[in-house]
Amino acid sequence: MATNLFPKTRKLAFFMHLFLGAYAVMILFPLSWMFIGALKSQREMFTNPIGLPESPNWSKFAEAWDAGVRDYFLNSVIVSFFSVLLIVFISAMVAYALARMEFPFRRTLYLLIILCFAIPMHAVLVPVYVLLSETNLLNTHLGLILPYAAFGLPFSVILMYSFFYEFPSELEEAAKLDGCGPWRRLWYVVLPLSKPILVSVAIFNLVSVWNEFLLATIVMTSREVQTLPLGLVRFRDQYATDWPGMLAAITMGSLPLLIIFMLFQKYFVKSMAGMGK
């Protein structure tokens, strides 16, 4: 019986690796084509759209950067950094309180957070716009940071709640015997051991905030404060015939997320593996 099992296992492993390899090619091909296309001349984009460039031309990156990508990039960095920082900071405290502390209506509050997660951003765009207009936050970085943080909190709290709920209570009990209050237990015991979930929450929200377009279109009408997705649309309209320049701008907009994920992927994988237990 065991002898018959091994060939089946090998077959399953073979097809799984084949599927994953095909999926990786599907993901990597557009990214590599985008980068290679940015190194080509305008003529090569049409005469040799898939092959490697005859002579790599890096000047398109500098041209796109100086043409306005720099300002859009900086705005995206500011908005994304503070949005993710707010989300991670607040969701960690809320999730810890819900998972490890006893207080009235704790379960009700958690259910309300789940309900908020079910409400799409598009359903409340008009109230958000009116609120930002009344508080003079349109065309400001804060006008995007606060809504992004608000929309990112429910999902982040749900993820962290699951992690903190399974956190070993013995470590907290030992810290409690040493005189640590709830705040110190969170900051000196729980959070240092929670890097995988913190990084996962940060990456999830960074991708969402960095690529968000609809709310940014409504809030940011002034070019000086527009983020990268809006800037790329403007860049596309301005350089519609310059394909290498357009691909260079898109490549620069994609690189930060790729680099961050590559640097912190071990925490992300560890968190996803832990959540599946």
Structure report:
Belongs to the binding-protein-dependent transport system permease family. Residues 73-264 form the ABC transmembrane type-1 domain. InterPro entries: MetI-like, MetI-like_sf. Its main location: membrane. This is Carbohydrate ABC transporter membrane protein 2 (CUT1 family). The mean pLDDT is 87. This protein is mostly helical and 277 residues long. The longest helix has 42 residues, at 59-100. Helix 3 runs antiparallel to helix 11 (228-238), helix 7 packs across helix 8 and helix 11 (228-238) runs antiparallel to helix 12. The chain has a single domain (58-275), classed as MetI-like (MetI-like fold). It has helices at 2-38, 42-47, 59-100, 106-117, 125-134, 141-165, 169-177, 182-190, 195-211, 214-219, 228-238, 243-275.
Envelope shape = globular
How many strands, which pairing sense, and closed or not: the largest β-sheet? Answer: none
What's the name of the CATH homologous superfamily? MetI-like
Query: Which segments are poorly predicted (pLDDT under 50) over 5 or more consecutive residues?
Result: none
Q: For the residues shown, what is the average pLDDT?
A: 87
Put simply, the count of helices is 12
Secondary structure: number of strands: 0
* CATH class membership: Mainly Alpha
CATH topology, by name, is MetI-like fold
Quaternary arrangement of the chains shown? single chain
User: What percent strand?
Assistant: under 5%
Terminal-residue CA separation: 29 Å
User: Pairing-aware structural class of the strands and helices?
Assistant: mainly alpha
The CATH architecture classification is Orthogonal Bundle
Q: Evaluate the radius of gyration.
A: 23 Å
